[in-house]
Amino acid sequence: MNALGKKIRLLRHQKGWSQEDVAKRLDISIPAFSKIETGITDVNLSRLNQISKLFGLSLVQLLSTTDSEEEKQIQDEINELSKKLQTRETEVIELQKKVIDLYEQLHKKS
């Protein structure tokens, strides 16, 4: 299944529609719609426009392959890594302070 087919399938599921429901709305056969979802059939611009309108999206939104769930996971990972980086930076600063203190103690003895 290609990215566009996955997105169309996800949109269909979000609406609670069957393949038959969508096929009827697009005035095509169920097998023809199934081939669109599975990526077996290349979809022409006219059909893409029809599908985008059916789901209330612009053509650009339909063709955008970024999955919002995937985006959320990526953002969560970025946030987690940012927290880890902040922690490491704090640790580095503390270690630098210790090195400076040790250096000053060494030179006071000399």
TrEMBL record:
Source organism superkingdom: Bacteria
Keywords: Coiled coil, DNA-binding
Domain HTH cro/C1-type: 8-62
InterPro entries: Cro/C1-type_HTH (IPR001387), Lambda_DNA-bd_dom_sf (IPR010982)
Coiled-coil ranges per UniProt: 71-98
Listed Gene3D superfamilies: lambda repressor-like DNA-binding domains (1.10.260.40)
PROSITE patterns given in the database record: HTH_CROC1
Signal sequence segment: none
Protein's name according to its UniProt entry: Helix-turn-helix domain-containing protein
Originating organism: Sphingobacterium suaedae
